[in-house]
Design goal:
Layout lengths: L1 H18 L4 E9 L4 E8 L6 E2 L6 E2 L4 E12 L2 E14 L3 E4 L13 H13 L2 H8 L3 H17 L8 E10 L3 E8 L4 E7 L3 H11 L2 H5 L3 E3 L4 H10 L4 E3 L2 H23 L1 H7 L3 H5 L7 H13 L1 H13 L8 H13 L7 H12 L1 H9 L6 H16 L5 H24 L1
Parallel strand pairs: 2-6, 8-11, 11-12
Antiparallel strand pairs: 1-2, 3-4, 5-6, 6-7, 8-9, 9-10
Bound molecules: zinc ion.
Length: about 425
């Protein structure tokens, strides 16, 4: 009899080691072979009596009563593992009778912290549906776990100061219209999402997200040549230098080329319209990035219409404006560029030129304040990729956390590569 008890005790202590919850021991286990499940019953080790109120964090020593909670933990080999924990309730002088706070159980959901972490980590590289299949959970459960995982990550993180901000909008579709994205150019991460792209949108960011001191610390903002943004920045961060950066200006240049193309081919009618159909992307791609075959296709289109070709070449040469680092040289190049438009009768390009002249200071500011190029574009691309992969991101907070985590893990990855 004595040996049996010893054996039993040994086995439970081994399970305690395998489980590895500090301060807790396994006092009963059950293995169901056909169902491939493992259940462990767990309680505090003797002497572990430091209780924490889940309401306020106050430390207490007296337990009010006990109860049991069942949570899913990481699997043990092929066995799905459930842990049944004996937990305490405390009588807190401030909160009354409350459950105790246990680090392994961060939420009310029936999962352990490390199980939620495994699910969250899987969500970083795979779509929710795939993670749901892998863990045999409902998609909505996976999303809820992922959100908590990201919220915990964000809560325990230092937020770098905002010195250079980027702003962009993403078109979500006919119903939701635009999403304004504010980002930190130095860390390359999105900071905030706002509905629509009005002055009020950006006002809300400045009002709710930053203190007066933080607003005063912003040195530069890369924005689109969009009047409402400028007005909001002037009101809330008048010291901040506006920069109409390459990414935003080239967006307008691409639109101008599209307009020329549409007008020309519409004028030409039937046959030409067939040739142009579905080739929209060709016009937006830079010549150097095109394959030989694509270049040939584009040349065939140019042969049809010289004016479209001119517009395309003008767009290509505008791109070089940002290779100048001296204000004078940049201005001279821009003037030459505008001079080339004379006699071309390219209305959309002329409109673009007027826009550039009206925002000249902001364009030249690129030479006065150095900001990292391509950050706004990269953040924009990441968010679009998330939207494509995740489909229903009805919860914008979730989408923002997801994009922030993506940006942060990427920088960590780069830093790791450099160190190696
Ligand atoms: Zn309390």
């Amino acid at each position: 009899m004595g040996t049996l008890v010893t054996l039993q005790r040994m086995r439970e202590s081994d399970w305690s080691k395998v489980l590895g919850w500090p301060g807790y021991k396994v006092y009963r286990d059950e293995v169901n072979e056909p169902l491939k499940t493992l259940t462990l019953w767990v309680r505090r080790k003797r002497g572990n009596r430091k209780l924490v109120c889940s309401g306020c964090g106050r430390k207490l020593t007296e337990a009010y009563d006990t109860y049991e909670r069942e949570v899913r933990d990481l699997p043990c080999f092929e066995f799905r593992t459930t842990v049944v924990v004996e937990l305490y309730r405390v009588r807190c002088p401030d909160c009354g009778v409350k459950t105790e706070k246990v680090p392994q159980l961060p939420s009310k959901a029936p999962f352990s912290k490390r199980f939620e972490e495994a699910v969250g980590l899987a969500c970083e590289s795979a779509a929710v549906r795939r993670v749901a299949r892998q863990f045999r959970l409902a998609s909505s459960t996976v999303r809820a776990i992922d959100l908590r995982y990201l919220q915990r990550w964000a809560a325990g993180r230092r937020k770098p100061a905002l010195r250079q901000m980027g702003m962009d909008e993403i078109y979500l579709g006919k119903k939701q219209k635009f999403l304004t994205v504010v980002s930190n150019l130095q860390t390359g991460e999105p900071l905030w999402f706002g509905r629509e792209r009005k002055k009020e949108t950006l006002d809300e960011f400045f009002q709710t997200q930053l203190s007066a001191f933080q607003r005063g610390a912003i040195q530069a903002a890369c924005v689109d040549m969009h009047e409402p943004y400028r007005m909001s920045l002037e009101q809330w961060a008048p010291q901040c230098r506006l920069i109409y950066d390459k990414f935003h200006v080239m967006k307008h240049a691409n639109e101008a080329v599209s307009e020329v193309r549409k007008a020309e081919f519409f004028r030409k009618g039937g046959a030409a319209r067939d040739l142009i159909k579905g080739k929209h992307w060709l016009w937006l791609t830079r010549w150097v990035h095109l394959s030989t075959n694509k270049k040939r296709q584009l040349n065939a289109l140019f042969a049809l219409n010289r004016r479209v070709m001119k517009a395309y070449l003008l767009k290509e040469s505008l791109d070089r404006l940002w290779s100048y680092t001296y204000e004078g040289a940049m201005l001279r190049y821009l003037q030459n560029w505008i001079d080339q438009l004379r006699w071309q009768r390219l209305k959309p390009m002329e409109k673009l030129a007027r826009m550039l002249l009206n925002h000249l200071e902001g364009i030249l500011n690129y030479c006065r304040t150095k900001v990292p190029l391509g950050v706004v574009e990269a953040i924009n691309g990441n968010i679009k990729a998330l939207l494509r992969r995740g489909r229903g991101y009805r919860d914008l907070d979730y989408l923002l956390l997801k994009a922030q985590r993506l940006a942060a893990t990427k920088t960590e990855f780069v830093a790791f590569q450099k160190a190696a």
